[in-house]
Amino acid sequence: METFDYEDVQLIPNKCVLKSRKEADTRIKFGPRVFKLPVVPANMASVIDEDLALWLAQNGYFYVMHRFEPQTRAAFVQRIHQQGQFASISIGIKDHEYQLVDQLKEMHEVPEYITIDVAHGHSDYVMKMIDYIKKKLPESFVIVGNIATPQAVIDLESAGADATKVGIGPGKACITKLKTGFGTGGWQLAAIQACSAVAHCPIVADGGVRYNGDIAKSIRFGASMVMIGSMFAGHQESPGEMMTIDGQKYKKYWGSASAVQKNDVHNIEGKQLLVPYRGKISDTLQAMQEDLQSSISYAGGRKLEDLRKVDYVIVKNSIINGDQLGD
Ligand SMILES: NC(=O)C1=CN([C@@H]2O[C@H](COP(=O)(O)OP(=O)(O)OC[C@H]3O[C@@H](n4cnc5c(N)ncnc54)[C@H](OP(=O)(O)O)[C@@H]3O)[C@@H](O)[C@H]2O)C=CC1
Ligand SMILES: Nc1nc2c(ncn2[C@@H]2O[C@H](COP(=O)(O)O)[C@@H](O)[C@H]2O)c(=O)[nH]1
Hints:
By secondary structure, this protein is an alpha/beta fold. It has one domain: Aldolase class I (TIM Barrel, Alpha-Beta Barrel), CATH 3.20.20. The chain is built from ten helices and 14 strands. It has helices at residues 50-58, 73-82, 97-107, 124-136, 150-159, 176-180, 188-198, 213-220, 259-262, 281-298, and strands spanning 9-11, 28-30, 33-35, 39-41, 88-91, 113-117, 141-147, 163-166, 203-206, 225-228, 242-245, 248-254, 272-276, 312-314. The protein has a seven-stranded parallel sheet. Strands 11-12-13 form a three-stranded antiparallel sheet. A two-stranded antiparallel sheet has the order 1-14. Helix 5 packs across helix 7. The longest helix is centred in the last third of the chain and has 18 residues, at 281-298. The chain is globular, with a radius of gyration of 19 Å. The two termini are 34 Å apart. The structure holds NADPH dihydro-nicotinamide-adenine-dinucleotide phosphate (NDP) and ligand LQESDW3C. Residues 92-94, 117-120, 146, 167-169, 171, 174, 176, 207, 256-257, 267, 269 line the site of NADPH dihydro-nicotinamide-adenine-dinucleotide phosphate.
């Protein structure tokens, strides 16, 4: 298999058919709804909270609320539905997580989207949870992750997944590749290509995006939606604490499997770091939209799908993407 990552690939332009980049359509139908952009902030406690989730929904963006305040999830679904917005939550696979599914069913509060969020998603226990959700809440669109291989896509789609989320180890706050030797770190883009080649359902590319152009590359290699953590963690609206060092502003960004998140020292596969402060999230989303419109124009197209057809070259190869172990 040919391996490559975001920084190894350049897409090749085609003749432009647009008078203005504003004509390029970045909308995506994902599950039951259409969103302005094929981009979603990561379902991490350092990236999203309930206020940001509501803002994203109200403004036409997809969101996935994290699962690290487990007792608040049912009330969140109820509250966001009362405000006329869609509910999109995360769930784990431990025994107590089945009670949340039961509770939502009893409350008649069906989330439009449920993301099964575990480190190693290609698992019998994940398939058991898919089966349970599909029996109890069949109207929910179920996204399942994280995975790294075509076989995982095949198995999870067979088990009922409506979308699969690809990316083990490419994240900025991730140390899985260093601690376990496993994952898609250094070949995340090739993993997206391999997984999408067998997929019948949408693929979410998750982790490793460092520049807006990586969104277009993700779409080119088969993603329908792109999940991003570090590039969304530094905003005014982001949950992390603000810090000022030598006059520069930063926000804290920590992994979901970090000691900070787990409050534990066992099975740590994430770290905490500082990311530059970036101001309002609406400005970042606007810039992402403009850059993606420009990408569509370079592709010689009018809409997102036109990115799928462009040629590319591999310009070099990388392994670790510049990431390092934390303290
Ligand atoms: N995308 C990525 O590269 C990664 C993402 N993460 C994120 O960190 C968070 C915590 O994930 P996770 O630890 O799975 O959540 P949980 O703590 O909920 O663990 C999931 C369950 O699966 C079991 N399990 C078995 N094998 C594994 C394995 N290799 N890795 C993890 N669990 C395993 C765990 O048991 P036990 O703990 O006893 O083994 C536990 O019961 C999630 O949000 C996840 O997305 C974490 C690592 C990698
Ligand atoms: N191995 C780990 N991966 C993690 C952890 N927390 C989150 N993640 C994954 O990273 C992406 C975001 O990646 P980024 O490159 O955009 O910052 C996120 O969606 C998860 O899949 C962790 O503790 N360990």
